[in-house]
Amino acid sequence: MKKNTKTIGMMDSGIGGLTVLKAAVHSLPAEAIAYVGDTARMPYGPRKPEEVADFTRQIADYLIESHDIKALVIACNTATACALPGLQEDLAIPVIGVIDSGVQSAVLASKTKKIGVIATEGTVDSGQYQAEIQAAAPGSQIFAQAEPDFVQFVEQNRYQDAEVAEIVKDHLQPLKEAGIDTLVLGCTHFPLLADVIQQALPEVTLVDPGVATAQKLATILKEQDLLADSDMEVHPENKQYQLYTTGPVSTFSTIAEQWLGSKHDWHFTHLNLPATD
Ligand code: DGL
Ligand code: CA
């Protein structure tokens, strides 16, 4: 099998997608990853779908032109909902989103078919989780709830504050009353709140689409003979993990290092993307 040392591209509106990156680093340790967090234009959730699609396409083009990526992961549920089909159509490389992984995992996990989904307004309004879960498990009762505040808790590095735990508990009360047995963390920011969410819903199975997405990425790379070998030479200037933010590097790197740990060298760089309008 030939060795493919090209880089995998990943993107999100900010910190969130690093939950997918973390899963990919674990399941594909030989692969190089270039990640763009579009913090300057976050949140994507309240934006018009065509605007999210424009931003996502711009980031995809940057990763292709500047990093010659061999595959792209849209590590953002909102961008997946708004842009995935178009990107899969137009790009020559494999493009993977996070929603169908979340759907498969939720349907596998749920016994009662009472499934909750928390996500951004954009993802909830797209109706994609609701439709795809219903298609995969007819008769499911789906309780979808937009939680934009949870995105800000993560981006402002407040996700470990005691008062946030209280707010999360209050917000999730309706889902507790609905009697769900499974909850999809349908925004890539939310796994950083997983402990607090689990405290609020102790009996509920939490689904992180990022984990199944990393597995799907590994399968696709293998199927298309795009995998790097395990004994791969060190990446150019040892930059296996290049993490870009369109916002301030300081805040981004602080939260990223908390979440990703210090086992690897994370290279943080500010990225300027010209306005798309
Ligand atoms: N992390 C993104 C998601 O998975 C969106 C957060 C936002 O920018 O609103 O939907
Ligand atoms: Ca800038």
TrEMBL record:
Active site: C76 (proton donor/acceptor), C187 (proton donor/acceptor)
Cross-referenced Gene3D superfamilies: 3.40.50.1860
Keywords: Cell shape, Cell wall biogenesis/degradation, Hydrolase, Isomerase, Peptidoglycan synthesis
Reactions the enzyme catalyzes: L-glutamate = D-glutamate
Catalytic class of the enzyme: isomerase
SUPFAM superfamilies cross-referenced by the UniProt entry: Aspartate/glutamate racemase
Record PROSITE patterns: ASP_GLU_RACEMASE_1 (PS00923), ASP_GLU_RACEMASE_2 (PS00924)
Pfam families (alphabetical): Asp_Glu_race (PF01177)
InterPro entries in alphabetical order: Asp/Glu/hydantoin_racemase, Asp/Glu_race, Asp/Glu_racemase_AS_1, Asp/Glu_racemase_AS_2, Glu_race
Functional pathway: Cell wall biogenesis; peptidoglycan biosynthesis
Entry binding sites for substrate: D12, S13, Y44, G45, N77, T78, T188, H189
GO molecular function, one term: ITP diphosphatase activity
Keyword Cytoplasm included in the entry's annotation: no
Keyword check for Repressor: no
EC number(s) reported in the record: 5.1.1.3
Listed NCBIfam families: glut_race
Entry's family note: Belongs to the aspartate/glutamate racemases family.
Protein function: Provides the (R)-glutamate required for cell wall biosynthesis.
Family matches, as HAMAP family: Glu_racemase
UniProt-recorded name of the protein: Glutamate racemase
